[in-house]
From TrEMBL:
This is Xylose transport system permease protein XylH. Keywords: Cell inner membrane, Cell membrane, Membrane, Sugar transport, Transmembrane, Transmembrane helix, Transport. It comes from Pseudonocardia spirodelae. Part of the binding-protein-dependent transport system for D-xylose. Probably responsible for the translocation of the substrate across the membrane. Residues 1-12 have a biased composition (Basic and acidic residues). InterPro entries: ABC_transp_permease (IPR001851).
Amino acid sequence: MTTTLPKRDPAGERGGTALHTGTSDLRTLLTRNLRQSGISIAFVAIVALFAVLTGGVSLSPGNITNIVLQYSYILVLAIGMVIVIVGGHIDLSVGSVVALTGAIAAVLVIGDGLPWWVGVAAAVGTGLLVGAWHGFWVAYVGIPAFIVTLAGMLLFRGMTLQVLGNISLSPFPSEYQQLAGGFLNGLIGGQGYDAFTMLIAAVGVAGYAVLAHRARVARVLDLQQVESFPLFACRIALVGLVVLAFAWQLATSRGLPVVLIVLSVLVIAYGLVTRRTVFGRHVYALGGNAAAARLSGVRTRRVTFWIFVNMGFLAGVAGVIYSARSNGAQPAAGTMFELDAIAAAFIGGAAVTGGVGTVVGALVGGLIMAVMSNGMQLMGVDQSVQSVVKGLVLLLAVAFDVWNKRRVRGDG
């Protein structure tokens, strides 16, 4: 008997299981991944809420630029933390590692007068060594990551005090400060705005649209369900408008922050690593079911080791950014950063049991924390109330994850 396969149509509008579902198409798009659609809607709602509560000040060009500068290091940490959590682990030491790497950079650059790039290299190298230290104990000795990194939090905070001699060091040379506070502007002109910032944003939107279309075509050819082309086009247009509006605010303020370029490169790179590489697939397999991954040939110890090395690397990068932003190194630097990074990952859709989470989701989760903190500061909300609100948001995010799992399993 001859079976006629459905016709493959790259446009996704004719034939095959890749057809859109008519009136239920929007519902399918929103519920196919409830974590990510929910967090995106929540982010838009929170931005709109604080825009109203602050009389539009939260969306002013200067304030948006300040959000990028003030919370960039948390977003860098969130990228590494979500990979750790997806792999089924946790890292409580990143705040102390940020302090230690910044302290080492300060001693070399401020104390010894070495070039700024030596301090950057030393900070990142220290982060890699810390990550290897954690990875060894977790992967090859078998001590739970919670215990290893809790010990690391104490160990590296003490080392920071020793390196700095329990005093602060400042200031860094201007070249080092530019890593966190510098801007690229005026390269191609613009009347009242920075045209270079808008050009970069336009190129980014075009690249996103091309990659999204290619991914959609690939799903259609694999006979997977996709949204209708008009809805797909609306989604791309909406993302493009948001990015261009964000870029316009930056362009009318001080231009394109250098740290935003660093963050964008990291997001793109780690997005590709987690979705397109063998290592990324192994991380998800490890977090989803470590025993099954091991039986499938995944070298779980090696994957775990490199997960922590990567976290150390990003903690070193965050240490450079934070020390450059604060223009010095302090013994108490990085306090509670690990909780902010963990909260960003969980709010962004990472599962408490591992195996689920995305870099983009962690970025959105970090931005939610940043917008809430910034908005409450603009409103003059007391610090204690801010902590209560952040705690409740984190609790609700994890509760949503638990509820969503029960819904999928049908447990009620």
